[in-house]
TrEMBL record:
<feature type="binding site">
    <location>
        <position position="73"/>
    </location>
    <ligand>
        <name>[4Fe-4S] cluster</name>
    </ligand>
</feature>
<dbReference type="InterPro" id="IPR001566">
    <property type="entry name" value="23S_rRNA_MeTrfase_RlmD"/>
</dbReference>
<feature type="binding site">
    <location>
        <position position="314"/>
    </location>
    <ligand>
        <name>S-adenosyl-L-methionine</name>
    </ligand>
</feature>
<keyword id="KW-0698">rRNA processing</keyword>
<feature type="binding site">
    <location>
        <position position="293"/>
    </location>
    <ligand>
        <name>S-adenosyl-L-methionine</name>
    </ligand>
</feature>
<dbReference type="Pfam" id="PF05958">
    <property type="entry name" value="tRNA_U5-meth_tr"/>
</dbReference>
<keyword id="KW-0004">4Fe-4S</keyword>
<feature type="binding site">
    <location>
        <position position="298"/>
    </location>
    <ligand>
        <name>S-adenosyl-L-methionine</name>
    </ligand>
</feature>
<keyword id="KW-0408">Iron</keyword>
<feature type="binding site">
    <location>
        <position position="155"/>
    </location>
    <ligand>
        <name>[4Fe-4S] cluster</name>
    </ligand>
</feature>
<feature type="binding site">
    <location>
        <position position="342"/>
    </location>
    <ligand>
        <name>S-adenosyl-L-methionine</name>
    </ligand>
</feature>
<dbReference type="InterPro" id="IPR002792">
    <property type="entry name" value="TRAM_dom"/>
</dbReference>
<feature type="active site" description="Nucleophile">
    <location>
        <position position="393"/>
    </location>
</feature>
<feature type="domain" description="TRAM">
    <location>
        <begin position="1"/>
        <end position="54"/>
    </location>
</feature>
<feature type="binding site">
    <location>
        <position position="264"/>
    </location>
    <ligand>
        <name>S-adenosyl-L-methionine</name>
    </ligand>
</feature>
<dbReference type="GO" id="GO:0051539">
    <property type="term" value="F:4 iron, 4 sulfur cluster binding"/>
</dbReference>
<keyword id="KW-0479">Metal-binding</keyword>
Amino acid sequence: MAEVLNIESLDLEARGIARRDGKVVFVEGALPTERVTAQTVRRKPSYEIARVEDILRPAALRVAPRCPHFGVCGGCAMQHLEPSAQVAIKQRALEDTFWHVGKLRPQRVLPPLHGPTWGYRYRARLSVRVVPKKGGVLVGFHERKSSYVADMRECHVLPAHVSDMLMPLRAMIAAMSAPDRMPQIEVALGEGVTVLVLRHLEPLTEHDLEVLRAFAAEHGVQWWLQPKGPDTVHPLDPAHADALCYTMPEFGPRMPYRPTDFTQVNHAINRAMVSRALMLLDVQPQDRVADLFCGLGNFTLPLATRAREAVGIEGSKALTDRALAAAERHGLEGRTSFATLNLFEVDVDWLRGLGHFDRMLIDPPREGAQAVAQALAQLAPRERPVRIVYVSCNPATLARDAAIMAHEGGYVLKSAGVINMFPHTGHVESIAVFESLPADEVLAIQAQASLKGQEAA
């Protein structure tokens, strides 16, 4: 039975939040300030999930979704909300997470980093399925909260020329020898280059290769093939092995990469993010800087153009090898060094052994950098102050690590703000700045933390 609900706020899955007799009701399709009728579809002891049936009072910030597949395709969650309002909700979510997880508030809220809201997604993983009931081959993202592939005929967060290839890709796969054994196509765009990586579970025939070459010639793309795991990825044409790259004109580096390497999906925002990170670090020519979880050197090489020394550390040797090669290509090998290490298992002795860093940049995956945060807290107090910029793709792990650094190591959360890397999605990218306190204040904080720990025991 439908009921009338008033929507108070929005979660990061773009569900409206209402309350009924103290119980939270998540309402799919509703926005803050709206009055709606909704039907409950799932009941739990502490919450319910409902779907909108009718909007009695629409929100002023509601807009018509641009994509006809919105609501079915799981690629986007917020197309019905004006883009600046999406960013405001993400900023609020970041601040709320800092408080709820770590009892912290940034001293200053940074202005959000904006970029293009359409055609921004330069990396994507498209699933391929043969579904006779839907006309044959489907190529696209999964349906929302489903393992089924959406019947996508266009996609507005992909660059237009990639969106235009969705239907031709269906026809191409259908023309190959084993279309049901080709589960995935990855998209990776570089400077003037579009790479498609075909995952195939059976060896390709000569006919298959001819089909791929014809498609590449017609659509101006380069094919890479992946017969097994990521290490087996290789270009169909060996001449294309080094064609994929992105640039950062402000700092000079041209960053080559393989299509399965981790790179940011939004190149415009990545450039702005690197620029902001270096501005917030305020790197000086005499500084020694650490870049933890450095990947391909996305931050390390720009840092090396400003600092005396930039030290990049990453868990993948393939990535650090490519980062070193890029540094050598740009004449930065004398100001950079790279090491391969599992940063999820480090401790304070390791960190102490690296020597003093004036600045540090941390850019971990979604799991965060808990071991690094604990090592930093145990290393404090330092003889000289240090500034840390932490780039995060998960507010919860950022807040957890911030709490460790602040409450156990005496670091101050100076500022934080969101980076709108993924418009129209619930994904929250953010950046935060920490600074170490004077030694006497740190010792007082650590003594208080130790006392609380003893009382708890």
